[in-house]
Design goal:
139 residues, 7 helices, Alpha-Beta Plaits, 4-stranded antiparallel beta sheet, alpha+beta
Length: 139
């Protein structure tokens, strides 16, 4: 297995409900190393740039409104096969379809308010990491 990095966000719904400590605890328990972490609030334009791949989709406006509605915690996580491992730790996008014990199943309230984001592929992870963190922050 290869050591890999992925990008993760604790979304505004989770931060607003005070769930960041629980999510960070689950990240550590799952065996990830947090390489970089930042608490911030995205502007609508920054959220739009991050989610540009979805620009033509009908939910784009709602997504960027939500992601700019409150603080987020952006992170770079490292582990063996980190991308797949983080997606397994998060669970399915829809908390109702996520496996019991996953973050989204246990803490999410809807598809839109599913508390976390994670990269879905190596190229996506590279883009998302570089969108939030400079190279010198990843040492």
């Amino acid at each position: 297995m290869a050591l890999e990095r992925t990008f993760a966000i604790i979304k505004p719904d989770a931060v607003g409900r005070g769930l960041q400590g629980e999510i960070l605890s689950r990240i550590h328990k799952a065996g990830f190393r947090i390489v970089a972490i930042r608490s911030m609030r995205l502007t609508k334009d920054e959220a739009g740039g991050f989610y540009a791949v979805h620009k033509e989709r009908p939910f784009f406006g709602e997504l960027t409104d939500f992601m700019s509605s409150g603080k987020i915690i952006a992170m770079v996580l490292e582990a063996e096969n980190a991308i797949a491992k983080w997606r397994d730790t998060m669970g399915a996008t829809d908390p109702k379809k996520a496996a019991p014990g996953t973050i989204r199943h246990d803490l999410g309230t809807s598809i839109g308010n599913n508390v976390t984001h994670g990269s879905d592929a190596p190229d996506t992870a590279a883009f998302e990491i570089s969108y939030f963190f400079a190279g010198h922050e990843l040492i």
